[in-house]
Amino acid sequence: MSEPQPVPLDPEMFDPVCPSPLVPFRIGDKWATLILRCLEGGPRRFSELKVPLRGITSKSLTQSLRGLERDGFVVREEYEGPVRRVEYALTPLGRGLLGPLDAACAWTREHWDELIDAREAGLSG
Length: 125
Known about the structure:
By secondary structure, the chain is mainly α. Helices cover 45% and strands 10% of the residues. The chain has six helices and two strands. It has helices at residues 32-39, 46-49, 58-70, 92-96, 98-110, 112-124; strands spanning 74-79, 85-90. The protein has a two-stranded antiparallel ribbon with strand order 1-2. Strand 1 and strand 2 (85-90) form a beta hairpin. It is elongated, with a radius of gyration of 16 Å. The mean pLDDT is 85.
């Protein structure tokens, strides 16, 4: 009996506000928090991750996944069979980051105007 497949990722799943470059801290590289969010609902294949991460190159996705794996946030599972497949999933450590990410996004939404003003002042000054 095969395992139930997770719901496909929505190509429009990311709020334009968060994750945002205005969040005052980062985990990993620019794609890491987005990848963590993609894995929130369960394991995903590389090709599935590319759907909502439209701007990412295969090279950048590979590098980000390797970094998240190295840091203990993501695990890479290889499955043998008639068709070999690889899936990525959150570890308990990675799943533990989801709450702080929610808090960072909420804080960013609350301070959005201030962050924009500060960014614009810094660019013109």
